[in-house]
Amino acid sequence: MNQLPITTSQQSQEELDQMPLTTHLITLRQHLVKIVGVLLVLFFILLPFRNHTYQLLSEPLRAQLPATSTMIATDVTATFMAPFKLNLFAALFIAMPFIIYQIWLFIKPALYLKEKKLAFPLLFGSIILFYLGVAFAYFITLPAVLHFFISVSPETVAPMTDVNSYLSFCMKLFLVFGLTFEIPIVTLVLILAGLISTQSLAEKRRFIIVGCFFVAMFVTPPDALSMVMLAIPMWLLFELGLFLGKLIEKRS
Fold first, then answer.
1. Is 66 a member of any domain?
2. What range defines the domain where residue 218 resides?
3. Rounded to the nearest 10 degrees, how much is the dihedral formed by the CA atoms of 59, 86, 124, 138?
4. pTM
């Protein structure tokens, strides 16, 4: 009885299965070293511009503050550490495509040909959506939320925000919106993995919408405006992922 010919992808998968755990760990370490190296290079390149970067980040707040108010530092090291931390975040933000690419190179050998064709567009889309989420937070959500908080403050209270507190607030906001904009990718992955169907998601739409507002209530600042500005994009992004999932199901 003749045996069926073994394809290149099957041979690669067999070779991968036979690789010892130490080989995988060595490969992972190589990718991690490259990621850390790129982060360090970007960090030192951006270091001379750290104060300018913080000025750019604080622009939405300074635009909302009264003319007599300024930002303050309640810690002796705050004026140094806040731009320093922001510089590290900026390096991570810029290096994100390279980090995703290194992750892709690590998992690529374990994927079949069909999975490889889908994985790269999903990874590329996740990078774009993360940047869109951070941009949405900086240009739309942050100015609106700051305007709300400052406008409701008592007239006898002069708003003077600590530089470290403002940095932590912005980093949390950017991270939340960056991850939130990954909802279409997560939805597609669940559909492609067969863990859930588009029909099931459509039937649970009302519960998912309520869940979006419930999650937004806990991860955003304690005001209704920021909650709504996160929950509505979450819902729309879910609908986008559901729509793309239906298109993929029709083609398959």
1. no
2. 21-57+74-250
3. -20
4. 0.80
